[in-house]
What does this fold into?
Amino acid sequence: MIRSVRGVHDILPAEAGKWRRVERAAREVFEAYGYEEIRLPLFERTELFARGIGEATDIVQKEMYTFDDRSGESVTLRPEATAGLLRAYIEHGLHVLPKPVKLYTLGAMFRYERPQAGRYRQFHQLDVEALGDEHAALDAEVIAMLVELFRRLGLADRLSVEVNSLGDEASGCRPRYRTELVAYLRAHAAGLCEECRERAEKNPLRALDCKRPECRPVLDRAPALGAFLCADCTTHFARTREYLAALGVRHVVSPRLVRGLDYYVRTTFELTTAELGAQNAIAGGGRYDGLIKLLGGPPDPGIGFAVGVERVVQLLPDADREGSAEHRARVFVIPLGEAALKGVLPAATALRARGVAVEVGHGDRKLGRELERAGRLGVGHVVIVGEAELERGEAIVKEMKSGTQRAVKLGELVEALLALGGRA
Ligand code: AMP
It folds into this structure.
């Protein structure tokens, strides 16, 4: 037997209803805020991610599925959606559209991580990006929209919203902080794990994110970024929080919230839950004002977030599974014999064309066995066509729950079943 690849999972029909529910809610909420869908390739040139995510990040250093294709070009399965979306924005000149340009996409991402609960090698994200506008009101709107998605899913009360400002490169507040932080981390290297010591040199802000308890005492006393913010970044953050308050979004400032990708500036945010153990981040995002230019586009600012769909689905109650029943057959047609099968196929096709889910037996099984199958499928009605019925141009329509049955002309079968409406 060939098994699936480690860290890669099937989504079985019993779970698919929850997935559909999340996707439907996401489309409704994002579109209500003016976002349009964009569909992007699953793989891109490797250099896009090296540049767009950052050479020093964990993702680029050790988590990418990278290979040479048959022409020798290095390509990579997308580990996140932002870089590809910005590539498309630049490549198709979408920056000429009225700003902010609001886009969302849904799909699989790939990272070679150590698989564990809530952490997979193929996983799915809902990804949202608003491009070309740097107003703090947009930062707040993006966060409010993310919260609205979870309110719609009935999960908002189980999540907390954390926000922070990372300062920015251009004004110099982040470089000043970085210098200070590196000096501190080097001075306290003895109290840090090897990975943190490495990060102190390559990607110092990420060290703050280390989950190891032995590193916490040193990291918790590290200088905080907030004290280093320049006047513009301070104002931007304060205004973002004012708009969040005006939008009714409760949040906490989390001074150590840094994110895995290099390109974030100013506003960063995360939705976390206490319910999923170590993998407590459900969604995360932030502003990345220099990135579009870095990728060869115009100097447009941007802000966005990604939601981890597996983690959302895990939080949803099993009752949401019922969603998967919506496509299950509502009518089971049981022809008895070859002639009956051929005689009833047009009616089955017409019903399906009208949106009724229909299962058709093959005509070669005994009635009792077929009724048993209909019972297991949980259909509302069965349509039985035997030789005698066929001769009379009729079918028997039986309601499964009550067991009552009546004869219906074959020509009137479609209308009769449609008239049963929700009970069909
Ligand atoms: P990131 O793109 O790393 O900012 O991640 C955004 C969200 O995607 C996280 O908050 C998680 O919910 C989810 N996520 C990231 N990596 C994984 C993974 N390996 N497996 C499952 N979900 C993930």
Summary: The longest strand covers residues 101-110. Residues 14 and 241 are 41 Å apart (CA to CA).
